[in-house]
Amino acid sequence: MRITIVGIGAMGCLFGAYLSQVSEVTLLGHWPEQVATLRQNGLRLIGLDGGESHHRLTVVTTPAAAPPADLVLILVKSYQTAEVAPLVAQLLAPAGIAVTLQNGLNNLAQLTAVLGSECVTLGSTAQGATLIEPGLVRHAGVGPTYLAETDETAVRLRQLACLLQEAGLDTHLVQDAASLLWGKLAINAAINPLGALLNVPNGYLVRNATARKFMVAAAREAAAVAEGLGISLPYADATAQAIAVAQATASNYASMSQDMQRGRPTEIEAICGPIVRYGRQLGIPTPVNGRLLTLINSAEDRV
Ligand code: KPL
């Protein structure tokens, strides 16, 4: 199976390194320092046990340079989705499918608008990865990956699930895409903005009583909004789940924290934004998500 991963940040490289052990993998990305380093020296991946492995990955900068893909994994930032959607269309082989594993609410809709609904679905992952410098990534936390099956994507998606499992990444197929999406959204709302504002690894949010209070409140608000929308989350208790994910990825700096450290835009509009907007429409208060949205927006203004 030919797999192309769109996105060469921490998560794109992490999935690329794992999947390249069991399949033919190409990475598509534009960040010049990362492209040059990966091509010249390959990827160095610091594993969960602290040991380093080395991976030679094929990196291209245009879809024309990639072989037709049976599977395209999308791991760019949510604010880049609209930009990469036409590239994904060029990457796909005739019966190929695209799977977004991104954070945020609107990725699937943006991809579907360009690709059609038959060949695209979504997943979510609780794996954590930190980009230390170009060419060097740390696998900083483990967690399951879920893929939402649709009738049209079932065959390829099952193949992907098998490959991810074979590569050592715990993966499960689920039916309910909305549940999966909101399940991840609640976790990201609880962990990412707080981690970014405090500039701390995820584990701190559990250890520090005040941070934990905010984390729990943000998760609870997101769960209330999901419930108001008629979506049942894939776990019984959003606060317990947020704590569990923060613990499982304790040494990881959330992706939003890494974005802020690098002076890059964050995914706040795709994470807390919809929670606040839907909350307003439904008359469900979301004061903590509202504050987190405002604070990250003003912090982004500064970087
Ligand atoms: O999705 C993540 C992220 O950082 O974006 C978690 C699971 C919270 C890991 O840090």
3D structure, described in words:
Strand 7 (92-100), helix 4 and strand 8 form a beta-alpha-beta unit. The protein folds into 2 domains: 2-175, Rossmann fold; 178-302, N-(1-d-carboxylethyl)-l-norvaline Dehydrogenase, domain 2. Helices cover 50% and strands 20% of the residues. An 8-stranded mixed β-sheet has the order 5-2-1-6-7-8-11-12, sandwiched between helices. The chain is of the alpha/beta class and 303 residues long. The chain is built from 12 helices and 12 strands. The chain is globular, with a radius of gyration of 18 Å. The model has no long low-confidence stretch (mean pLDDT 97). Helix 11 (268-282) runs antiparallel to helix 12 (287-302). Bound molecules: ketopantoate.
Based on CA atoms alone, the radius of gyration comes out at 18 Å
Number of structural domains: 2
* Tally of DSSP helical segments: 12
Helix content percent band: 40-55%
Write down the CATH topology of the largest domain: Rossmann fold
How is this fold's topology laid out?
Blueprint: E1 2-6, H1 10-19, E2 24-28, H2 32-41, E3 43-46, E4 52-55, E5 58-60, E6 69-74, H3 81-91, E7 92-100, H4 107-115, E8 120-125, E9 128-133, E10 136-141, E11 145-148, H5 154-167, E12 171-174, H6 177-198, H7 202-207, H8 209-228, H9 238-248, H10 255-261, H11 268-282, H12 287-302
Bound molecules: ketopantoate (KPL).
